[in-house]
Specification:
Layout lengths: L2 H30 L3 H27 L10 H16 L4 H23 L5 H35 L15
Length: 170
């Protein structure tokens, strides 16, 4: 196996771990969310990340590598922190959005870093497509969080905008 393949396998496995972490984090957030819209959105993102990991698994195998089997240890600790933080804050959707955005910041950086590496063209195309979708998910979570913060500031209550309500970008 060439050094180029070894590096590509390492980069792809890092993304697989990141996707598995994201899937677990979003699934956990989906289970804890109060808003039906957020439950659905978080579940959708969990499914998306599971699919991303499976796509990347295939590329690692095609490079004659062994796909990562689990996520990062630090991510498991972060999910534990989400459990504690949401319990202390009343398990509200705003706290979940804050923590999901933190996780998405990490995912966005992982994809940005991966795209700086020398990857085979087919793997690069998949990583680029996934990076675009990760950024879109990050931005959506950020916008929902900002809207929830604005709503909480206005009347003290936390409301999550639905698809029909406008979301303003900062």
């Amino acid at each position: 196996m060439s050094d180029t393949n070894d590096k590509a396998i390492s980069v792809l496995n890092e993304l697989i771990e990141t996707c598995k972490d994201g899937a677990k984090g979003f699934e956990s957030a989906s289970e804890k969310a109060e808003s039906p819209e957020l439950k659905s959105l978080f579940h959708e993102y969990a499914t998306q990340r599971t699919s991303f990991a499976a796509d990347l698994d295939g590329h690692v195998v095609s490079l004659r590598g062994k796909p990562a089997e689990s996520g990062h240890v630090a991510a498991a600790a972060h999910r534990g922190w989400i459990d504690i933080k949401t319990a202390l804050s009343g398990n509200d959707d705003k706290a979940l959005l804050n923590e999901c955005e933190r996780g998405e910041d990490y995912a966005k950086k992982a994809y940005t870093d991966a795209l700086k590496e020398d990857l085979p063209a087919d793997a690069r195309a998949i990583v680029q497509r996934q990076a675009t979708e990760v950024k879109a998910a990050h931005d959506r979570v950020r916008d929902l969080r900002n809207a929830a913060n604005a709503a909480a500031g206005a009347d003290g209550a936390t409301t999550i905008p639905t698809e029909t309500e406008p979301v303003y970008r900062n």
